[in-house]
Amino acid sequence: MSESEPGAGTRDRILVGVDGSEDGLRAVRYAMREAKASDADVWIVNVVDDTMPVGGLWELVSTVEALRKVGEEYLTEARQILEVAGIPPERVTSEVLIGPPGPVLAELSEKATLMVVGRRSMSGLERMFVGSTSLAAAVAAKCPVIVISAASTPHVTGGLRKIAVAVSTWPVHDSVMAWAAKEAALRKAELRVVHVVPDTLGMEAPRYAAEATAELERQLGPFRASHPDISVTVDVQAADPVNALVEISKEVDLLILGLHHHRAALGGSVRGVVANAHCPVGLAD
C-alpha cells in the first residue's frame, strides 16, 4: 500500500469506493482496466459510516473500530485484485475513513481525475433512488464519475468499442466532450453523440430533430477537426429520453451524460438512466 499523499504524484488518480459488495469489487475491476489503459494510479477508499444510530458512546466506539477492521479486509481484497492484474503496489493507495460515505467520497474526488463507484441493483420504485452512497457521491463530485453495477454489467466492458455521450442542451460542454474523447482514444472506440428530442412534441418533433441535428453537427465541427482519429457520429432521436438512453446503453461500453447544470440538481431523467442502464454510466459537467 502506498502511503503517498493522494494527488501528490504526476499521474492521474482514479478514486474507487469499496464497501465489500460485489458492486464495489466491480468498480475496482473497472478502475483497474482504466488505470492500465491510462497509466493512472488507483486510490481505494472504504468509508465507515459513523452516522448510524447506536445505543451509547462505548457501543459507538466499538462499532466504528469493528467496522474499520472490516474495511481493512475490504481494502485487502481490492488490493489483491489490482496486484493480480499487474498494477504495481507503489501505484495503489488505500485507506479507511470515518464519516458519511457519499459526502466523504465527494470531498476526496477533488484530488482525483476520475471516481468509480458501484451501484447496487434494485427493482421497482427503489431504482429511482439509485443507491444512496453512489448517488450522493456522484452528485457532489469534483471530477467525472463512473457508476457501475455488477448486476447490470457482470461482463467485462470494452468489447463493443463504442461510447455514447448524451447532450441535452446547448452549447455542448467542452469538458464533457474532452472526457468522451479521452475515453474513446483509450479504448480505440467510436464516439456516438446523442441528443433526444422529447416525443411529446408530436408532429413538430421531426422539425425539431432536424434543427437539432444541424446545430449539433455545427457545434461538433471544431471537435472533429481537433480529433481526426476518432470516428464521431450524430444520433438525434424523437423519443422518451430515459427509454432512448437506456436502449442505447445496451449498444455501448460507456454512456456519458453531459450535465448542463451542476450535477447536484440531478433530475428524474438522469436518475432514471443511471438506475436502469445496461452499461457503466459516466456523469460530467
Radius of gyration: 20 Å
Task: Assign a percent range to the helix content.
Answer: 40-55%
What characterizes the major β-sheet?
10 strands, mixed
As residue ranges, the low-confidence spans are 53-58, 123-130
H-E order: EHEHEHEHEEHEHHEHEHE
Name the beta content range.
15-25%
- Our count of helices gives 9
Quote the distance from N terminus to C terminus: 32 Å
Estimate the global geometry from the Cα principal axes.
globular
The strand line-up of the biggest sheet is: 3-2-1-4-5-10-9-6-7-8
The total count of strands amounts to 10
**Rounded average pLDDT:** 84
Structural class category: alpha/beta
Summarize the structure.
By secondary structure, this protein is of the alpha/beta class. The protein has helices at 22-38, 57-84, 101-108, 132-140, 174-187, 205-219, 221-226, 241-248, 268-276, and strands at residues 13-17, 41-48, 92-98, 114-118, 145-148, 162-167, 190-198, 232-239, 254-258, 281-284. Strands 3-2-1-4-5-10-9-6-7-8 form a 10-stranded mixed β-sheet, with helices on both faces.
